[in-house]
Known about the structure:
The complex is a heterodimer of chains A (831) and B (217). Chain A is of the alpha+beta class and 831 residues long. Chain B has 217 residues and is α/β, with parallel strands linked by helices. Chain B has a single domain (2-216), classed as P-loop containing nucleotide triphosphate hydrolases (Rossmann fold, 3-Layer(aba) Sandwich). Helix content of chain B is 36%, strand content 27%. Chain B is built from 7 helices and 10 strands. Chain B is globular, with a radius of gyration of 17 Å. Adenosine-5'-triphosphate is lined by residues 10, 12, 17, 19, 37, 39-45 of chain B.
Amino acid sequence: MKLAFVLRMAWRDWRSGELGLLLIALTVAVATVTSISLFVDRLQQALVSESADFLAADRRISSTRAIPDGFREEAAARGLRQADTMSFPSMVFVRDDTSQLVSVKAVSEQYPLRGVVRVTDEPFTAGEVTSDVPARGQVWLDARLFPALGIALGDEVEVGVARFKVSKVVVQEPDRGGSMYDLGPRLLMNLADVPSTEVVQPGSRIVYRLLLSGDAAALEDLKGVLPLEPNYRWQGIRESSPAIGDALSRAESFLLLGGLLGVLLAGVAVALSAHRYARRHYDHVGILKTLGATPTQIMYAYVAILLVIGVSAVVLGLLIGAALHVLIVLALQSIIPVALPMPSMRPVFLGAATGLICALAFALPPLLHLKNISPMRVIRRDLGGAPRSQYMSYVAALGGSLGLLIWYSGSLWLTAWTLVGTAAALLIFGALAKVLLRGGRVVGMQAGSGWRLALAGLQRRSGENTAQILIFGLAIMLLLILFLLRSSLLEEWRNELPDNAPNHFILNIVPEEVDALTDMLEESTERRGDVVPMIRGRVLAVNGIGSRTWEQQHRGVDAPGPSLRSERNLTWAADLAEDNTVVDGSWWPADETRALVSLEDEYAAELGLSVGDTLSFDIAGRMVDVEVASLRSLDWESMRPNFFIIFSPAVLADFPATFMTSFYLPTDQKRFLNMLLSNFPTITVIEVDAIIAQVQRIIDRVTQVVELVLALVVASGCLVLIASIQASRDARMGEHALVRTLGGSRGLIRGSLLAEFGILGIFAGVVAVVGAEITVAILQVQVFELSFALHPWLWVVGPLFGCVLILLVGMFGTRAIVSTPPWAVLRESEI
Amino acid sequence: MRAEQIAKVVPTAEGELAILAGIDLEINAGESVAVVGASGSGKTTLLGILAGLDQPTSGRVLLADHQLTSLDEEERARVRGEHVGFVFQTFQLLGSLTALENVMLPGELRGDANAEKDALELLEKVGLSERSRHYPRQLSGGEQQRVAVARAFASRPTVLFADEPTGNLDTATGQRIIELLFDLNKEFATTLVLVTHDDRLAQRCDRIVEIEAGRIV
Ligand SMILES: Nc1ncnc2c1ncn2[C@@H]1O[C@H](COP(=O)(O)OP(=O)(O)OP(=O)(O)O)[C@@H](O)[C@H]1O
Ligand SMILES: [Mg+2]
C-alpha cells in the first residue's frame, strides 16, 4: 500500500469529519500544556528574580567568619557576579553626648546584585532609586536616626574611631529582611571604610556575606564545590524568607498539579475520540479486508493516519499554545509589571512530547486493534467486534500517563499519588455510578414519558453510562479539586498577611514610658498590638550540666540554628498567645507562682530539651532556675513578635525589663514616626511595611497564575465532556431516530435527551463531590500542609453544577440528533 | 475451486451448534453456481468459508491453487485481493467515500496506477458515471448495489461471491442488478457463486446447489 493512498485515506476520513475530534483533542492537549508551561516558565523566572530582591542576590553565603578568597575565585571562574557585605551592630556618636545603637551594613561597590537601593534627602519621604553605594568617608542613615540623634544631612557622625559625613537618607535596601531583632536602624557605609573604624575586633558580632548572582546551573555547581559546612551557610530565597519560599513552593505544586490534571484530561479526551474513531471504522476495516487489505496494511494505514494527525496536532497545538500564551501575557500585562524573561525551550518540547505521547499512549491502541477486525463482520455484524481483552489499551494509557506525569512534574511522588488517587476513585465510583443508575430506574418507572424514555435509555446502555458518569465525574472532580485548593491556598495566603497586620514594631520602651507611648499610639494609629515585656538572658546550665557540655552531648557540632549560650530575648506572659499551640506539657494557669518556662518546640528539639528539664538562666547578671512546663509550636510566618522562650509571670516580675509593641501605619502617614521618635528618643522603631508590601506583591502575582491555570484546566475539562458525549452520540442518534419514526415528537426526543443528560450530570456531580472531598483532604494535609476541612456547600453545588454543565455540553453536542430527519439517520446507519 | 468435507461448529449458550456438516463442493472456472436453501440452513456461512473470510472447523478449501484453510489471515487477505470479489445483500459501501472512490478502492489497495480510470469505466458500465461524485447516502438502494457490483469487478476477481444481491431490492431493480452481474461475469470470465432465495436468479445459473441443515442435498 502506497503512502499516497494512505494520505488519501486520511484526507477522506478528515473530509467526513471523523478525524476532527481526534485532531482537536490532541491539539488542545498540546496547546494547553504548551501555553501553561510557557507562561509558568516565564513567570517562574520572573518570580525567582523578583524574590531574589530579598537577598539582593540569587544566592548568598553567610558566615560569622570572613569569606575566604578561594570562594571568590571559584565564583569568578564560573562567571558569577559578586558583591560583599558585612553587618554588625555598633554605636554611633554625635558630638560625644548623643549615641544610638545601629545596625551597620558595609557594602562593596557592586552591591546590590538584585533589587534596588532607594535614598532621599529628607527623612520619611519616599526615596529614589540609586545605583551608587556610599562613597568613602560618607554614610547613609535610616530616617529614624535623624530625630533620634538630632542631626541633619551633612552633619558628621562617629563610628568606632572614624568620622563620617551623613550624605543621604537610606529608605530601602533590598536585603533588609531577616530576623526581626537584627533590624536596628540602618547605617550604610562603604566596605573599604570598615578597617578605619577599628570596630572589628576578635569576638565582634559580625556577619560576613558574599552575594552571588548569575546562571542557575553555575550557582548550583559552585554550591557543590565549596567547603561550606560547618562554618558557611548557603542561602537561597527559600532559606532566607520562609513566607515567600512557602508561597512559592505551594504555588509551584499547584501549578504542577493543575498542569498534570490538564494533561490527564486531555489524554482522556484523546482516548475517547480515538475509541470512537476506531469503533466507527470496524465496518470500514471489514470491507477493506474483503477487498484484500491485509492486517499489516491496515495497521500501517492507521498508524500513518495517526502520525499525520499527531504531527498536525503538534504543529497546530504549539502555534495555538504560543498564541494563547501571548494573549494571556497581554491580558495580564497591567497586573504583571515586571518584564517577563524569554521562555526556555522546555515548554515547547513538553508540548510536542505531550502530543506525541498522547497520540501513542491513548490513541494508538484502539487503532492498532483495528487490524484484528474479522472480515466476517461484513456478513455477520455480531462477529469481528472488539475482542474482550483490551489490556494493551490500559497498559499503554497507564504507561503513557505515568511517563508524561513524571516528566511534567519531575516528581515521582506526586505522580504516584495522582495515579493511585485516580485509580481508587475509578473503582469506588464505578460502583457508585451503578447504584445510582439502578436507583434511577426505580424512580423512573413512575415518571412521565420523556423521563421514562431517558431512564430506559440510561439503563439499557448501563455499561456505557457507567463509564460516562465516571468520565464526567472525573472531569468535574478534577475541576472541583483545583477550585477548592485554589480557594484554600488563597485564603491561607490572605490570613498569613492580613492587609492591616502591624507593620511597625517598637522595641526598648522603658517601663516609665509605656503609658505615655500607648496614649500617643492610641491617638494616632488605628490598630495596635499588645505591649509585651522583654528582657535579654542566656542559658548557663541544663539540669545542672553546663550548657557547653550539654550542647556537646545533645546537639551535633555543626547543627545550624540557635545556640543555648547566645543571649536572646525573653518575655513572660500569663496567657498563651492565640497563634501558639501547646504541643507537649501544659500552659500554666494565670495565677501560677512557680518558676516555669515554655519553649518553642523546634528550638527545644534542636537542643535536646524536653518538658521537666531545669534551665539555669543568667538574666541581667542574676541566676534564675526554671522548669520547662510546655513546648509550643508557633507560626513564624505571621509577622508578629514571637519568642523562643516565655517565662511564667512570677519569675521576672522584679527584673528591669523593657517593653515592645506593634502598630499599623499606612504608607502616607509615615511622618508620624518623626514625631514619635522626637518624643521618645530612646525607643527603637522597626519598619516592616516595605517587606510586607513586597511579600504581598509576590503573593498577588502567584495568585493570578493560579487562577489562570484553573481556567485552562476548565477548558480541557470541557473538551473531555464534549469528546465523551460525541463518543456516545452514535448510539443515541440511532435510538432516537427510531423513536421518532415510531411516532415520537421532536419535543419528546428533546425532553428525553434533556432528562438523560440532566440525570447523568447529577450523578456525575455526586461522584465528583465524593472524590473531590477525599482528594482535597489528602492533598491539603499531605502536599500543601494546610489544615483539613469539609465543604458542605459543595454537596449542593457539585451535583447542580454537574447537571447544568452536562446539560449544556450535551445539548450542544447532540443538537444534530434532534434536528436531523430520522430517515437520514437510519439511512446512514444502514451504510 | 474445491471444498472438501467442510464443517463449521460454533459454541452457543446452549452448547455447540453444527452449522455445516461435511460439505463437498467443486466449482469449475467460469461456472456459475447458485446456492439455495431455507433461511438458517447455512448458506451465508458456507459462502464466507469458500471466500476465505472465515475458517471452517474442519475440512479444506482450495481456491485458484491456494489452500485457503492452511493460510493465515495475512495471506488469505492477499488471495482475496487477487482472486475474490463480493456483492452483499446490504451493499457495504464505505459511507465516507464517494461512489467513484468506493470503486477505486480495490485498485488502490493493489497499488494500481490506473485505479481511477478503471473505476470510471466500470461506473460507466453500470450506468452511474454522472453519479460518481455522490456519496452512498445520496444514492438509492439499487444505485448503491450497482456501485457495489462495479466495485466487485474492479477487483478483477477470479471468483465473484454474491450473498442475496437482490434481497434488499424490488423485483425490477433486482432484475437490473442480475443482468448486470451476468453481463459483467461474461465479459470478465469470472466464476460466479451466489446465494439467493430468488428462483429466477437461480435458474439462470449453470448449476444449483441446495443446502438443508448444513448439508448438500
Ligand atoms: N457465529 C455464530 N454463532 C451462533 N450461531 C451462528 C453463527 N453463525 C451462524 N449461526 C447460525 O447458523 C445458522 C446458519 O446461518 P446462515 O447465516 O449461514 O444461514 P443462511 O442460510 O444464510 O440464512 P438466511 O437465508 O436467513 O440468510 C443460523 O441459524 C445462524 O443463526
Ligand atoms: Mg444468509
